Amino acid sequence: MASKQSPASPGSDVDERKRKRILSNRESARRSRMRKQKHLDDLIAQVSKMQEENKKLRGMIDNAAYSYVTFSSENNVMRDQLAKMASRLRCLNSVLEIASEVGGLSIEIPVISDTLMEPWQRPYQVQPIPNRFHC
Question: Under a CB-based contact definition with an 8 Å cutoff, are residues 96 and 107 in contact?
Fold first, then answer.
C-alpha cells in the first residue's frame, strides 16, 4: 500500500508564516541598524568637518586681531610723529614769518591744513571695507 501524503496541516502553515515574519523582521531591523549607523557616521563626519572649519576661522580671527593690534600700534606711532612734525612745521613757519618781516623778503609760508592738525578729519571720502566673510 502506498502511503497517502496528507495535505499540509493548518499548524505548519501558521508556523511557516511566523518563521517568514520573524525573518522579515530581522532583515528590517538589520536595515534599520545599518541606516542608523550610516546616519551616525555622516554626523561624525559633519562634526569633524565643522571642527576643522571652526579651527580655520579661529586662526583667521586670531590673525585679524593680531593685525588690528599691530596696525593700531603703528597708527599711534604715526600720529605721535605727525604731532611732532606739525609742531616743528609751526616753529619753522614762525621763523619764516620773522625772517620775512625782518629781511623784507617775500617768502611763501605754507599753511598747515586742519586735516594735518586733526587727522581724524580726512580730506577724502573713506572707502568702505568689502565684507569678505558671508554669514
Answer: yes
Give the pLDDT confidence of 114-135 residue by residue, as tens digits: 555 555 555 555 556 666 655 5
CB 103 within 8 A of CB 73: no
Could you tell me if 86 and 103 are in contact, meaning their C-beta atoms sit under 8 angstroms apart?
no
What cell numbers appear for 53 in the block? 572649519
Structure pTM? 0.52
User: Residue 70 corresponds to which cell in the numbers above?
Assistant: 599691530
For the chain, helix, strand, coil in percent to 5 are 75, 0, 25
60 in Cβ contact with 86 (< 8 Å)? no
Is the Cβ–Cβ distance between 82 and 116 less than 8 Å?
Answer: yes
